[in-house]
User: Fold this.
Amino acid sequence: MARRRQISEGKAKILYEGPEPGTLVQYFKDDTTAATPHRRIVITGKGVLNNRISEFLMRKLGEIGVPTHFVRRLNMREQLVREVEMIPVQAVVRSVAAGSFARRFGMPEGTLLPRSIVEYYYRSDELEDPMVSEEHITAFGWASPPDLDEMMALALRINDFLTGLFLGTGIRLYDVKVVFGRLWEEDQMRIVLADEIGPETCRLNDLRTGQRLDAEACRGDQAALTRVYQELARRLGVIPESGPADPQGPETLQ
Ligand code: TMP
Assistant:
């Protein structure tokens, strides 16, 4: 098979040129930097589970009418996605205080917020994703006021839907990070959800044990990360109830 052209490589994924114009192949690596931004950790099989979890959540969101870049899963580690013009802003929707929010306001992690709060961060590894206001976003031309309205509406809708979906599996969604892109179809432009959604882009809490069930909470512990990925995949029904026997190659349901 001809070698594909690599478009970009991030911490957890590689993007390749897709088979048709306007498409890309998103490859999920086993690397993670969750909670260890300056240390790369490899968890065998993580990319496979992340691919399945993100596919599942993107599909579910698509089913309720949230436009996403996801087209279909190609194999264990790859999915076909629409090529979009990425907006360099990430929206974080928080329902429960955690992470930088809890630190900023001196709130204990787990404090229920009076309502879901949307925050924006400028996507820059060099600047470590500084928080920005709507004024920065429109003044610097990262998104127009109507784009921003759409991003906020979609972010809240995604958060509401995921909150219910996770609750159904005994998990509280504390916060979720989403990124968007512009998809051009002839002269029409739509804002669509891009990248991935999964244990590295959400904070999750197991309602039964009160323990966090996401990548950051594992603080780089490989065994804990493996357990979290497998447990989430199991609860969402993307791997069998008994879990994969061999962590080298997680068995997945079709
Ligand atoms: P923060 O509370 O650390 O600012 O994180 C905000 C959101 O970003 C939260 O929904 C989880 C997500 N997130 C990542 O996507 N990657 C990370 O490495 C961390 C720490 C958080």
User: Anything to note?
Assistant: Residues 6-83+222-236 form a domain with the Phosphorylase Kinase; domain 1 fold (CATH 3.30.200.20). The longest strand covers residues 171-185. Residues 145-167 form the longest helix (23 residues). Residues 34-35, 92, 98-101, 175-177, 200-203, 216 surround thymidine-5'-phosphate (CB under 6 Å).
